[in-house]
Amino acid sequence: MPTEKFDAIVVGAGPSGNACAYTLASRGLKVLQIERGEYAGSKNVQGAIMYANMLEKIIPDFRDDAPLERHIIEQRMWYMDDTSYTGMHYRSDDFNEERPNRYTIIRAQFDKWFSRKVREAGALVILETTVTDLCFSGGKVIGVKTDRAGGTVLADVVVMAEGVNGLLGSRAGLREAPKPETVALAVKEMHFLPAEVIEARFNVKGDEGVVIEAAGTITKGMAGTAFIYTNKESISLGIGCLVSEFAKTGMTPYGLLEAFKRHPAVAPLIAGSEVKEYAAHLIPEGGYKAVPQLFGDGWLIVGDAGQFVNAVHREGSNLAMTTGRLAAETIFQIKSRREPMTAENLSLYQKMIESSFIMKDLKKYKRLPNFLHSAGEHLFGTYPQLISKAAQTYLRVDGKDKKSKERDIVRSFVKTRGVLGLASDAWKLARSWR
Amino acid sequence: MAMQELGSTRVEEKLYQNRYLVDAGRPHISITPHDVPSAVLLSLTKLCPAGCYSTNAKGQVEVIPDGCLECGTCRVLGEPSGEINWGYPRGGYGVLFKFG
Which of the following CATH numbers is that of domain A6-69+105-176+289-364: 3.90.950.10, 3.30.479.30, 1.10.510.10, 3.50.50.60? Predict the structure, then answer.
């Protein structure tokens, strides 16, 4: 390991670590980035959708050479029971713009590209090296220990971009380890198909893409969601539920995945595909209340390690990139003033995050995790079935008059959930959305 | 039982698609020795997305993390009670996602 002292050490080479290391290095700071994988991205898993705006703020011309799959022109939200989905779709040709806002990406390729940019910006990137501990001196973080010979490296500040399951921060007592109620376990497969087959099945052409977000009985009453994203020549398909829910029901994640793939609305989309990878990953779902202390003497936390995921809007890597960039800007400002990396100085990072969209969005949904815990079995069991039945009652033409049909639908809801139950669910949902 | 076997066969087939560099003889997850497994340990035989956990003839829960996807689910559930000892594989080892 290098023996010289660095301005900053960044642990991890995902979107938050890369955003941070890139921003620091391009402003002339001496940066060491350490990644345990064989290459950046080899330990990382995401759906994945990449939001362009947050990357533009870091690498404005990223479209020139970043490995992007398809820009998204259509969003489908499916509320599913065992044989149906009730959906809301939005598709617009306006999304065929010069600088599209959302792309599907393949993380191993994207992270590798981002890591190359980090190196080109002047950071020293060390791969295949696991950071094992933080080094402290008088309560201040002064560097890291690794599993390499001569493994200790010193820096003015250490940025923990170690991901949702990072060990450093929690082992050192700087943040809590994730809890079963605040993380979801998601499993995912990569299904390969020729581009023209994907385009025909999803009704798109060229680089256009579709994303499907799904919820309902597919998670067997557990709080969770599933997704289907179109890449150029593959489809990313996955499903996830809170770890606490899996633990309660004893269902296998791969059993859930297989059942989702067999759903009559899903099976035709992936028919004949070749599966080339099966992955699993945790997703922070605790929201606003689960965000830990983000700074201290000589350290900062960015990305998934800070629980920065907006579960409602399926946003995560954009929060990761933004927190990485803001951490770098904080460090740069302190460095420019030739001041030390004390907790007081680094608290600027917290202020930046609070005045950005990140904390505003997380705060907006701060009640949602509790709502999902309390109403989960209805949201992911009772309601999709009721809605499907209502749609069928309404759509079937069978000689029954429409007024009676409407009365039957209302009765089925009241009978199953009760007037108070319905009112309580509606109230809680509205509140958790504010 | 037949369903369970079917399930575990299927997950092995899934893992077969993946790329790993196994650190032979240095498993990064271990279980604290026990006579009777706790509910948490037993739940991991179902929950582990890579099917790394199983029960042996004595009813104890064992882990073989060769196919581990390094998600951390077992750490989240089993570390607080001290039943699961979870570390990262040495740098470069473990699962190597081609797509992620």
Answer: 3.50.50.60
